[in-house]
From TrEMBL:
PANTHER family: UPF0127 PROTEIN MJ1496. InterPro entries: DUF192 (IPR003795), Saro_0823-like_sf (IPR038695). Gene3D superfamilies: Protein of unknown function DUF192. Residues 1-22 form the signal peptide. Keywords: Signal. This is DUF192 domain-containing protein. Pfam families: DUF192. The lineage of its organism: Bacteria, Pseudomonadati, Pseudomonadota, Alphaproteobacteria, Hyphomicrobiales.
Length: 151
């Protein structure tokens, strides 16, 4: 699945600037590293075509411990993302349906139109501020605990 660039541009032209993440809190998740260390995150959920297209575009900040969880539906699928109109570097954590992290794209380049692949089928993507995965020791194979993922 590829996020359609035309739809992203249309969404960017029609939708108002996104509110600060704190206003959109819709849940929490925890990443548990293989060493057993738990890292909680406050979430905003992107589970409609509009919210997935918009993502974190036009935001100027994303506090530590907060993120956006993209839900791509009940089945795993290969996804690609990009950073168009996204002003802050992000870590993109690609998550399998069983809750295991498949791949992490670290410190993605702001405003880039290059596609970023999940490197395999996933159910969701967690976007957090760039550098978070390295700072917290989060890696592929770690477990994400959230109702979207069974495991």
């Amino acid at each position: 699945m590829m996020i359609d660039r035309r739809r992203l541009l249309a969404a960017a032209l029609v939708l108002p600037a996104a509110p600060a993440l704190a206003r959109g809190d819709t849940g929490r998740l925890t990443i548990v590293t293989r060493a057993g260390v738990s890292h909680p995150f406050v979430l905003e959920i992107a589970n409609t075509p509009e919210t997935r297209s918009r993502g974190l575009m036009f935001r100027r900040e994303l506090p530590d411990g907060r993120g956006m969880l993209f839900d791509f539906g009940p089945r795993e699928t290969e996804v690609t993302m990009w950073m168009k109109n996204t002003y802050i570097p992000l870590d993109m954590v690609f998550i399998r349906a069983n809750g295991l992290i498949n791949h992490i794209a670290e410190n993605t380049t702001p405003l880039s139109e290059a596609t970023i692949s999940s490197n395999g089928p996933v159910k969701g993507v967690l976007e957090v501020i760039g550098g978070t995965a390295r700072r917290l020791g989060i890696a592929a194979g770690d477990r994400v605990e959230h109702p979207f993922f069974r495991g």
